[in-house]
Amino acid sequence: MGNDFLDKRGNYRELRCFQLAEHLYDIPFIFCERFIGRGDRTKDQMVQAARSIKQNIAEGSSAAAMSTQTEMFLTNVGKSSQQELLLDYEDYLITRGLAKWGLEDPRLKNVRAALRQRMTREFMIEKAKGWSDETIANVAITLVHQCDRMLTGLLEYQKQQFLQKGGIKEQMAKARMEVRETQRTQSSHRIAPDCPICGKPMIMRMPRQGNQPGREFWGCSDYPRCKGTRQIDDSINK
User: Fold this and answer.
1) DSSP per residue over the chain, as a string?
2) Where are the domains of the chain?
3) pLDDT at position 238 over 50
C-alpha cells in the first residue's frame, strides 16, 4: 500500500450508469418541450431530477478519492432522483390513457437491443425528436430501470471497497504506520556509533518536541549524565 492510499476512481464518464444517465438527462428536454404545457411545474421537476441523476453519479465518483461515505451518499441521491423521474413518466402515461409497455412487448425488446449497442447522445436525441409521447416515456422508463440496476451494483461495490479498505482516515493511518515500520526496519540496520564525549555506545532517539520533532538522531546511552549526540549518517550501515 505504502503512501498510495488515495483511490484512483473518478473516471465517471467510463461508467455505464453515467452514460445511461446522460440519455435520461437529454430526453426530458425533448419530452417536456413537445408534450408538457408551458407553466406546468412538472417540466422543471423532471429536468431537475434528470440532472440530479447525472450530476450525483459524477460527483460521487470524483469524491471517491477522499471519502467513500460521500461517494455512497451521492450515488444514493442519484438513485433516489431516478425514482422521482420514473413516477413522472408513469403518471403521464396513466393520466393520459397511454400504454406502459410490458416485458414481452416487442417495442420494449427493441429498445433494450438498441441500448445494448450504446447509442451516442446525438443519435438518441435525433431519434427522440420523432417519437410519440408514449414511446419517449416508455424508453425513459426502460432507461431508469437499467440505470437503477447498475447503481445498485455500484453501491454494493462501494460498500465492499469500504469494508476492505476503510475510510480515508483509516487508509492514511495504515499508510503512515507502514512508512514508520519501514523506517524502523531501516534504522535497525544502522551501526550505533560511540559517544563523542564519553565513548559509550549510542542509541537512536526521536524527539517529540523542540526544533526538529520526529527527526531521529544518535544520543548517548548514558543520558542524562552524558548529553553527547550525533547526527544520523545513513552511509554507515551493516
Assistant:
1) -TT--S-----GGG-HHHHHHHHHHHHHHHHHHHHS-TT-HHHHHHHHHHHHHHHHHHHHHHHTTT-HHHHHHHHHHHHHHHHHHHHHHHHHHHHTTPPPPPTT-HHHHHHHHHHHT---HHHHHHHHTTS-HHHHHHHHHHHHHHHHHHHHHHHHHHHHHHHHH--HHHHHHHHHHHHHHHHHHHHTTBPPPBPTTT-PBEEEE--SSSSSTT--EEEETTTTT---EEE--TT-B-
2) 12-172, 189-238
3) no
